[in-house]
Amino acid sequence: MTSPARPAVPAPPARQHRATGRRTTSPTTLAVDLGSCTIGVWAARRGTVSGPCGDTSASVGSLVRRGRVVDIDGCITLLSQLARQYPEPVPPGGVVVACRPVLATDADQDGTRRVLDAVFAPTRLLFIDTVRAAAIGSGAHAGTLLVVDVGAELTEVALLQDGRVIAARRTEIGTRDVKRGATVDLISDNVLRHVDDLRAGSDALDLRAAGARGVLLVGDGALYPGLAPAISGMLRVRVHRAAAPRTAALNGAGLAAMSLLRHPAVA
Fold first, then answer.
1. Using CA atoms, how far apart are residues 188 and 225, in angstroms rounded to an integer?
2. Per-residue b/e over 132-157, b at no fewer than 16 CB within 10 Å?
3. Please, are residues 64 and 40 in contact by the beta-carbon 8 Å criterion?
4. pLDDT tens, residue by residue, 28-80
5. Is 186 helix (H, G, I), strand (E, B) or coil?
6. 224 closest CA partner among 253, 193, 182
7. Is 59 exposed, middle or buried (0-12, 13-18, 19+ CB in 10 A)?
8. What CA–CA distances, in Å, run from 205 to 176, 189, 201, 210, 215?
9. Residues 206, 159: contact at Cβ < 8 Å?
10. Considering the entire predicted model, what is its pTM?
């Protein structure tokens, strides 16, 4: 016996979109590192994209010099191009955590803020010291830690306590200067001078504890031939290279951004 046919159930109406036809997307979480050699972007569920931000053989033409944005329009253009490399568009209104060199000034941060506002229009923008982000990205932020970040044009030395920077120094010299006539020993001498300054301060006991643990070396300098042994010899401590020294700060900023998303009250 044949059962009577059931009445057809109408399909649910198609979701209406605005006249522009754009797909509705939710805000995302981003981390950005505007380095003197490379600009990098990390986006939740999208991964990392990066690109060179200027001439690696000369300061002329570079978008970022000594950790400071000097060409805002150029940075906006490059960052926009990088963001368009993602298969899915990066919607505005997200949460952005941006790396900044230790001891950055308000003017330095303002230049970075203008770039990020123009490209991502974040609803929330927070800055994180590069040395702190690198410690997080290396999984070494707990306890007392001495971080040496040798980048393309900056050398930063910082003492951290449970991921918080309690003392820091920096010099405008990096691996790019070696190609212009500076030496590895000159960079090592600057690191030693900064550590001696920290030893003379009120955080000498914390520095001694950090020295017993060893130095975390990050940045381009961690892969530069001879630099790690030179720093180790100068300081007479073990030097540990981060597993991914060039991206440790960006990865750490991404982890910080995700933590901020989960715990928005903590920042």
1. 13
2. bbbbbbbebbeebbbbbbbbbbbbbb
3. no
4. 899 999 999 999 999 999 999 999 987 654 444 589 999 999 999 999 999 99
5. helix
6. 182
7. middle
8. 34, 22, 10, 9, 15
9. yes
10. 0.85
Q: Which two tokens stand for residue 253?
A: 């900023």
Neighbours of 129 (CB within 10 A): 25
Helix (H, G, I), strand (E, B) or coil at 160: strand
Interhelix angle 72-83/106-120, nearest 10 degrees: 40
In terms of Cβ atoms closer than 10 Å to its own Cβ (0-12, 13-18, 19+), residue 219 is: buried
Task: Report H helices in the chain.
Answer: 72-83, 106-120, 130-137, 175-178, 184-199, 204-213, 227-235, 248-262
The two tokens of residue 147 are 């971080």
137-194 pLDDT tens trace: 999 878 999 999 999 999 999 999 999 999 999 999 999 999 889 999 999 999 999 9
Q: Give the residue among 169, 138, 166 at the shortest CA–CA distance from 251.
A: 138
Residue 77, burial from CB neighbour count under 10 angstroms (0-12, 13-18, 19+): middle
State the CB neighbour count (10 A cutoff) for residue 67: 25
Q: Take residue 226 and report the two structure tokens written for it.
A: 């001879």
Count of Cβ atoms closer than 10 Å to residue 83 Cβ: 18
- Three-class secondary structure of residue 99 per DSSP: strand
